[in-house]
Automatic annotation (TrEMBL):
The keyword Oxidoreductase applies. This is NADP-dependent 3-hydroxy acid dehydrogenase YdfG. Keywords: Oxidoreductase. It comes from Chryseobacterium geocarposphaerae. Pfam families: adh_short (PF00106). The lineage of its organism: Bacteria, Pseudomonadati, Bacteroidota, Flavobacteriia, Flavobacteriales. Coiled coil: none annotated. Belongs to the short-chain dehydrogenases/reductases (SDR) family. The keyword Translocase does not apply.
Length: 249
């Protein structure tokens, strides 16, 4: 049984991952910004294992520090950190981009990942064991027009994962970087700020990945033998060849 902390656990990939790993008997710390959703998920998953919830916004360093420092002693030894929280806002060229959107993506996808990791890594180093799973994107592999800042933040996740591996391998800590392709979650609804019609077109005419598919992949990496580290994993739906190319029916 592992103690696993999942950020962005109130929806999408994070929620599916928390659910699967809970059903496998791990102790799960679910993290998110919406307390009522956290409590609902905690109630649901408590049927399978021990669940602890933390409410904080990864973009706010003070909230991150306060929340993680508040963990009871029996929850402090985190075996696996899954840095899932992140976002995409807008699909505009740089010349028309909104700086608030840029800040939200950089703060969530890059700084938030760093803030949480900085709090968890020292304990892993002391114990000479641990596993960090960072959720990147195929957007890190191929930049696309009108998504430059989002692509840049996910490229940063790749670089951070590589750097973590260089710094942490000697301490017995695994680092896994996962690059999902098109996954049908609230991702596009958030990107298009609640425009359901526009968001639906992203997943129309083909079978996109589901959050459960990525959860399966994360679980595979987390459950690998101690001497095995899955360093990088790229996952496309069958209909997608690269970020910009999807073959629709």
């Amino acid at each position: 049984m592992k103690t696993i902390l999942v950020t962005g656990a109130t929806s999408g990939i994070g929620k599916s991952t928390a659910e699967l790993l809970a059903k496998q008997g791990n102790r799960i710390i679910i993290c998110g910004r919406r307390n009522e959703v956290l409590e609902s998920i905690k109630t649901e998953l408590s049927a399978f294992t021990e669940i602890f919830s933390l409410k904080f916004d990864v973009r706010n360093l003070e909230e991150v520090e306060t929340a993680i420092n508040s963990l009871p002693e029996e929850w402090k030894n985190i075996d696996v950190l899954i840095n899932n929280a992140g976002n995409a806002y807008g699909l505009d060229p740089l010349s028309a981009g909104k700086t608030d959107d840029w800040d939200s993506m950089i703060d969530g996808n890059v700084k938030g990942l760093l803030y949480v990791s900085k709090m968890i890594i020292p304990g892993m180093k002391e114990r000479n064991s641990g596993h960090i799973v960072n959720i990147s994107s195929i957007a890190a592999r191929q930049t696309y027009a009108n998504g430059v800042v989002y692509c840049a933040t996910k490229k940063a996740v790749d670089v951070i994962s590589e750097g973590m591996r260089l710094e942490l391998t000697e301490f017995g800590i695994k680092v896994t970087n996962i690059q999902p392709g098109a996954v049908e979650t609230d991702f596009s609804l958030v990107r298009f700020k609640g425009d359901n019609e526009r968001a639906a077109t992203v997943y129309a005419g083909y079978d996109p990945l589901k959050a459960e598919d990525i959860a399966d992949s994360i679980a595979y990496c987390v459950n690998a033998p101690k001497h095995v580290c899955i360093s990088d994993m790229t996952i496309y739906p069958t209909a997608q060849a690269e970020p910009r190319t999807i073959y629709r029916k």
